[in-house]
Design brief:
The chain is an all-alpha fold. It is 69% helix and 0% strand.
Length: 203
């Protein structure tokens, strides 16, 4: 069996790699605006392959980190329900990759609607799992030493998710991308903190 530390290190590398790709998509001439456009819009066009690779790398990182947490990093052991929810996130992301989104100026299609449904599922699963895991991890060493960070990230994730939903309305749609990006960055930083804690536990 691969150790939790090894899984965590590989997971950290993958998540950091994803954030690198995420940053690159905002630097490359994609024609997408970081405030107005959804992140999934990067999948449509010449940079779609880069976006999909980032989606795969991010999912692998999440899976590795989750598998590490399954190895009961502390006492009491973590509940299995939020970990199972995290395992379902990559499944939802597969749906997002298979069914590309519709761009703002295009008519909504069945494919685009399915993409949005899978995206909603991925976001909801991610938030629910983080919401349930944060208080438990905060009571387990070594995460207890930076429990304030985990709780702060959890609050940022909640606020960004709420604002993300609010800005889905037509009047506020022009700033939807900003809060979607805040949600994605804050959740990935949360996973990085968790993975770093796993590595620190074995140090």
């Amino acid at each position: 069996m691969i150790s939790a530390v090894t899984l965590s290190v590989l997971g950290l590398i993958a998540i950091l790699g994803y954030l690198g790709i995420f940053t690159a998509l905002h630097v490359l001439p994609t024609g997408r605006h970081p405030v107005r456009h959804a992140v999934s819009d990067y999948a449509v066009g010449p940079y779609g392959r880069i976006f999909r690779r980032g989606l795969v790398i991010s999912s692998v990182g999440l899976l590795l980190t989750t598998l590490a947490l399954f190895q009961e990093p502390g006492s009491p052991p973590l509940k299995s329900t939020p970990l199972v929810l995290l395992l379902l996130v990559p499944v939802a992301r597969v749906g997002m990759a298979v069914f590309p989104t519709d761009l703002e100026e295009e008519k909504i299609t069945r494919t685009g609607l399915l993409h949005h449904l899978f995206a909603v599922a991925a976001f909801a699963l991610t938030y629910t799992a983080i919401s349930q895991l944060t208080p438990d991890l905060a009571d387990i060493s070594p995460w207890s030493s930076f429990s304030g960070l985990l709780h702060a990230l959890h609050r940022i994730i909640l606020v960004s998710l709420v604002l993300l939903v609010v800005t889905m309305t037509p009047r506020l749609r022009r700033i939807f991308g900003l809060f979607e990006r805040l949600f994605l960055v804050s959740t990935n930083v949360w996973f990085i903190a968790v993975g770093a804690g796993m590595v620190a536990a074995a140090a």
